[in-house]
Amino acid sequence: MQQFKAPSGLHIRPSGPADKVFLARLHREVRQDLQWIDGEQDFIESVVDMQLHAQTQGYGTQFPNAMYFIIEKNSEAIGRATIDFGHNEVHLIDLAFLAAARGHGFGRAILQTFQHCAAQSGVPMTLSVLSNNRVAKQLYKELGFQLNGAQSPYEFLIWYPPAMKLMSGA
To answer: pTM score, two decimals?
Structure first.
């Protein structure tokens, strides 16, 4: 795996109860599609809140051992990552950034950090991506992820640490 240098001031820390306001703000930015709902603003806000609650509950149910992280730049929260460190893989469940933090290489640095964790554990890293998300798919390809299946509207990708590539023939 190539060496990388995280952008200066970038930090990952566990998420806690004090992050609730930031996570709600991030969710609103990421789910701009929900603002297009035809209805009163109070109704739209209730749908946004319900979606955040459903996402949180869904992750908890589907990935009971997941770990939740806040990504900071110079001690200011700019994103979140949800990861399941399983016995056989490191699975990226979710990675999201505030709009102002996108396009600066932070996502790449965070992904490389988790790839490093997977390599240290000797397991592959997996994730899913919306089939129409060309920007994310290009980044994943540049980082060595390969298609490992698809079920509309998602594609499932996998990355093998260098030592595992030799053993698996990937």
So the answer is: 0.80
